[in-house]
Amino acid sequence: MQVNINQATEHKRHWIRETANVNLLLPSLSIQNKIVDILDNFEQACSKLNTGLPKEIELRNNQYEYYRDQIFNYLNANKDHRTEK
């Protein structure tokens, strides 16, 4: 037995018809271009952060490790002098 499910005379997706009749207000072309410029600048800034920030973190970690090692070396060297006295 075959059942014909689509017996409606109009399109099942009535939202397509309704959406086609919606009027959208768009800003002028000059304002759209300004928005594009702002978004491009924002994207460039984010890109610079994404590349620069990890490098900065790596450099700070190297700096931390260097000074940490210097302090421990200094403390260990002075520890030997203090125990000799």
From TrEMBL:
Keywords: DNA-binding, Endonuclease, Hydrolase, Nuclease, Restriction system. GO terms for biological process: DNA restriction-modification system. InterPro entries: Restrct_endonuc_typeI_TRD, Restrct_endonuc_typeI_TRD_sf. The keyword Hydrolase applies. Pfam families: Methylase_S. The keyword DNA-binding applies. Residues 20-58 form the Type I restriction modification DNA specificity domain. One of its GO terms (molecular function) is DNA binding. It comes from the Bacteria. Belongs to the type-I restriction system S methylase family. This is Restriction endonuclease subunit S. It comes from Mycoplasma tullyi.
